[in-house]
Amino acid sequence: MDLKRLTNRAKDLVEKRGGPESVKEDAGELRDVAKGEGSLKEKAKAAAEAIKQPGADSGKPSEDGAAGSERPTAE
Q1: pLDDT of 1-55, one tens digit each?
Q2: Is residue 60 part of a domain?
Q3: What is the rounded distance in angstroms from the CA atom of residue 75 to the CA atom of residue 57?
Q4: Count of domains forming the chain
């Protein structure tokens, strides 16, 4: 396994997601979804929606009660 190649790939992915702060926000958002109310299926859907865009949103709960499952759209 080429560790240097793997490290460079990880760095590229972090930069594509918006940098280290954005990745931290994404992790916090996923943590909130996992700790929230709802079935495993609902949490999986909310998590998938949450990672579509880099960085956390305003943190306001959506209609289903999962924080971060709704994101504003850029116009």
Answers
A1: 799 999 999 999 999 989 999 999 999 999 999 999 999 999 999 999 988 877 7
A2: no
A3: 16
A4: 1
The boundaries of the domain holding residue 38 are: 20-54
User: Is residue 26 a part of any domain in this protein?
Assistant: yes
Residue 56, pLDDT score: 63
56, 25 contact by CB (below 8 A): yes
Give domain status of residue 24, yes or no. Answer: yes
Task: Tell me the backbone φ, ψ of residue 53, rounded to 5 degrees.
Answer: -120, 140
Is the full-model pTM beyond 0.70? no
27 part of a folded domain: yes
Three-state SS for 65? coil
Angle at alpha carbon of residue 55, lines to 62 and 69, rounded to 5°: 15
